[in-house]
């Protein structure tokens, strides 16, 4: 336990990386963290990684001061009233979209959009609409119901998944968001068929996870589109068979893709967060049965515009949140697959950083010099 942590009346004082305003460097502050309330657990964060959506929200969202971070692993430190699923010492992954297991969506095989614990955008806890973090009485807001850029955090039990204690927490934290989201988009949302052709726009962690999923499904061609030439060699590791840098071509990228795939890909994936690319992704698909899946979180212009003819010709556009996984039901099996070496996770980790270097992780992602930076908390 960090020497900076003290417990008074079950309120913990610990260090957290606080964002005080959009785009401002995070500041390591001593924060007070309240005990877990009913159906909540308090977690000692072991490892957390920076996701692109953290960066997007940090640059643009209006709720501050805030503690970002949602892709994390840790150990249960204490439990609140009514908690029976977890015990102190359990190893867990945090998740940004929960699973209550009782609502209409959770009991449906068609959806993973929990009506009770879905995306939390207000920066407060579900149970009482209050924060658990504060500095000298001033509330510090949560992010995505997790806020893992802190030595300790409090989450609803529906936003945590118990995993095997044998799994390395410093690796599997990536399965709590990015890697799982890409694999699920390939397997659950698109249901990629063997021998099919795939094009992926954006070769970050999510896009390369789609590639990994497509490769494991036996896709014959997996085309990666990215303006960062440094992604080319790394992309091969995850199954990319053709790399396209749009800056190297004068003709529209959709035409390049059609040339490679003999008329258009069976599946296309938009993993950038640029709604303007969705039309390009749709045009890169084949007539009749082409499927486009969008996964990216846009910084600007959230509205989508596409010519109706693209759909009249038989193309389909689908959205994907967390790859269609029900986190509590499905994440343990993904961890098992990792432990059996059936899926890759380690190769996504390009940097390992101590907590005090968290701003370096943000800079690396802004500059396109990393896939995932894993931030290790003090022991």
CATH architecture classification of the largest domain: Alpha-Beta Complex
CATH class group of the largest domain:
Alpha Beta
CATH superfamily of the largest domain: Medium-chain alcohol dehydrogenases, catalytic domain
Into how many domains do the coordinates divide? Answer: 2
Structural class: alpha/beta
Organism: Hevea brasiliensis
Family: Belongs to the zinc-containing alcohol dehydrogenase family.
Keywords: Metal-binding, NAD, Oxidoreductase, Zinc
Cofactor: Zn(2+)
Overview of the structural elements:
The chain is an alpha/beta fold and 379 residues long. The chain has ten helices and 18 strands. The protein folds into two domains: 6-176 and 345-376, Quinone Oxidoreductase, Chain A, domain 1, CATH 3.90.180; 181-320, NAD(P)-binding Rossmann-like Domain (Rossmann fold, 3-Layer(aba) Sandwich), CATH 3.40.50. It is globular, with a radius of gyration of 21 Å. Belongs to the zinc-containing alcohol dehydrogenase family. Residues 21-375 form the Enoyl reductase (ER) domain. Keywords: Metal-binding, NAD, Oxidoreductase, Zinc. This is Enoyl reductase (ER) domain-containing protein.
Outline of the structure:
The chain is of the alpha/beta class and 379 residues long. 23% of the residues lie in helices and 24% in strands.
Write the layout of secondary structure elements.
Elements lengths: L5 E3 L2 E8 L8 E7 L6 E10 L2 H9 L10 E9 L11 E4 L38 E3 L2 E3 L11 E5 L3 E3 L6 H4 L5 H12 L7 E5 L3 H12 L4 E5 L5 H7 L4 E3 L8 H9 L5 E4 L6 H7 L7 E4 L14 H4 L3 E4 L7 H13 L9 E6 L3 H9 L5 E5 L3
Helix pairs in contact: 3-4
Subunit structure: Homodimer.
Keywords: Metal-binding, NAD, Oxidoreductase, Zinc
Cofactor: Zn(2+)
């Amino acid at each position: 336990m960090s020497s900076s942590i003290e417990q008074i009346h079950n309120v913990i004082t610990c260090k957290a990386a606080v964002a005080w305003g959009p785009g401002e460097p995070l500041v390591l502050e001593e924060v007070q963290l309240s005990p877990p309330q009913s159906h909540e657990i308090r977690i000692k964060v072991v490892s957390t990684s920076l996701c692109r959506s953290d960066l997007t929200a940090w640059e643009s969202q209006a709720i501050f001061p805030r503690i970002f971070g949602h892709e994390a692993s840790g150990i249960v430190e204490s439990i609140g009233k009514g908690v029976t699923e977890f015990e102190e010492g359990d190893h867990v992954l945090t998740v940004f979209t929960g699973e209550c297991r009782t609502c209409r969506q959770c009991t449906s095989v068609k959806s993973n959009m929990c009506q009770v614990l879905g995306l939390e955008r207000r920066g407060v806890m579900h149970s009482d609409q209050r924060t658990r973090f504060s500095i000298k009485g001033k509330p510090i807001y949560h992010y995505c119901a997790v806020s893992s850029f802190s030595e300790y955090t409090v989450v609803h039990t529906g936003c945590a998944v118990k995993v095997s204690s044998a799994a390395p927490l410093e690796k599997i934290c990536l399965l709590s968001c990015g890697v799982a989201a890409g694999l699920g988009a390939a397997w659950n949302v698109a249901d990629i068929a063997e021998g099919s052709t795939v094009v992926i726009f954006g070769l970050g962690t999510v896009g390369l996870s789609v590639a990994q999923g497509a490769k494991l499904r036996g896709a014959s061609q997996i085309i990666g589109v990215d303006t960062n030439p440094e992604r080319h060699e790394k992309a091969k590791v995850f199954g990319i068979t053709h790399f396209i840098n749009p800056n190297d071509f004068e003709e529209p990228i959709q035409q390049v893709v059609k040339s490679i795939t003999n008329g258009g890909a069976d599946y296309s994936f938009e993993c950038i967060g640029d709604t303007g690319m969705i039309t390009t992704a749709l045009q890169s698909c084949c007539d009749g049965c082409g499927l486009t899946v969008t996964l990216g979180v846009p910084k600007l212009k959230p509205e989508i515009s596409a010519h109706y003819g693209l759909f009249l010709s038989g193309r389909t556009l689908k959205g994907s949140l967390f790859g269609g996984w029900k986190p509590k039901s499905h994440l343990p099996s993904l961890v098992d697959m990792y432990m059996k070496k059936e899926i890759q996770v380690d190769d996504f980790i390009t940097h390992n950083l101590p907590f005090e270097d968290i701003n370096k992780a943000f800079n690396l992602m802004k500059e396109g010099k990393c896939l995932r930076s894993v931030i290790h908390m003090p022991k």
